[in-house]
Q: What sequence folds into this?
């Protein structure tokens, strides 16, 4: 691997460590619970717990006297657990969405910088070609490429085309 790639990987790892260290206890607990709830161990434990509860309370396994023959208590436990688990999952998803938004903003900034640098390089190469009297078949296209792209204009055009598409569907 190149030094640049190693540097970029190290920067990503360091950033992830920094973000984890910065997260609060509540977020770390929610993430840990979500990770556990998404594991096969969780599934096996639930299978054993619910299976035993049902087996005891339906009389299939007569090692104990049935204590919840209608399984109402089991249903209540499962419902409360579902409420809490879904809340933990939402907390984790919100954190992941915030991290994704930060990465998307970074990608956008890098793309805009790259576009600006490429435009400058095209202008420089075009100027060199002109000074060396090198003719190309794409002179018109090069003139267009030498102009900076304005992100706000691109967004306006995308929105206009999206609105036109919606109107044509109706």
A:
């Amino acid at each position: 691997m190149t030094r640049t790639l190693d540097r970029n990987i190290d920067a990503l790892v360091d950033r992830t460590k920094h973000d984890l260290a910065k997260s609060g206890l509540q977020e770390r607990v929610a993430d840990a619970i979500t990770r556990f709830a998404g594991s096969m161990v969780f599934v096996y434990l639930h299978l054993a717990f619910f299976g035993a509860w049902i087996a005891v309370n339906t009389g299939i396994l007569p090692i104990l006297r049935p204590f919840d023959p209608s399984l109402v208590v089991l249903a209540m436990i499962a419902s409360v657990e579902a409420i809490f688990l879904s809340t933990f999952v939402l907390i984790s998803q919100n954190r992941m969405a915030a991290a994704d938004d930060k990465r998307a903003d970074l990608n956008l900034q890098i793309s805009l910088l790259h576009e600006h640098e490429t435009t400058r390089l095209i202008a420089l190469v075009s100027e060199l070609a002109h000074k060396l009297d090198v003719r190309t078949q794409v002179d018109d296209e090069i003139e267009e490429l030498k102009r900076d792209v304005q992100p706000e204009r691109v967004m306006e055009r995308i929105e206009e085309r999206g609105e036109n598409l919606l109107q044509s569907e109706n």
Notes: The chain has a mean pLDDT of 88. DSSP finds six helices and no strands in the chain.
